[in-house]
Write a structure and sequence with these properties.
The protein is α/β, with parallel strands linked by helices. The protein folds into 2 domains: 135 residues, HAD superfamily/HAD-like (Rossmann fold), CATH 3.40.50.1000; 57 residues, DNA polymerase, domain 1. The chain is 44% helix and 12% strand. The chain has a 6-stranded parallel beta sheet, with helices on both faces. The two termini are 14 Å apart. The mean pLDDT is 96.
Amino acid sequence: MASLPIWLFDLDNTLHDASPHIFPHINRSMTEYLERHLSLGREEANALRKRYWERYGATLLGLMRHHGTDPRHFLVETHRFERLHEMMVFDRALRGMLRRLPGRRIVFSNAPRHYARAALEVMGVAGEFEEVVGIEDLDYQPKPGIQAYRRLLSARRLNPSRCIMVEDTAANLRTAKRLGMRTVLVSRGLRTPAYVDIKLASVLDLRRQLGRLIA
């Protein structure tokens, strides 16, 4: 049992496709939040949202540093989904694939926990993960910052050499590899960075590559 892997799964654009509906909704909600709470016009609010995301890796960090924004209030207000089940794009084969993976499975996301859990429920895979780690659990320090990974590992006493991180964002895997994890990039792009052990077009292909990940 001690040799079994610990799977660390990202959520958005890894376990499901967030690009068609989820991300546009969140972006609009964040822009509207900046309009209301910073008294900005739409274009100015949208530009600031993008600027903080590019500079800090998360709009929330910029708001906390420069405006004293309450992170809990921000996350609740910007991650409201009245019809989440209609917005989710995912493959129903996901549940079967996850069940066949040996070892422990944890969701490790920059998203707030309440949204991540709701998304897993819609996909019918909430029971396939022992824990959902959201940005609240990381002291609001998002990936790819190394503090997020260290907090995850230390709080749960995880050995990074047993961890396999599955992500759609290559930069997040760079930090994982630096800490000694194995890395899986879920992407249809042509480029495979040196710090990526395996690149897959779909997370559903993961089980076919077990031999390359687990000795």
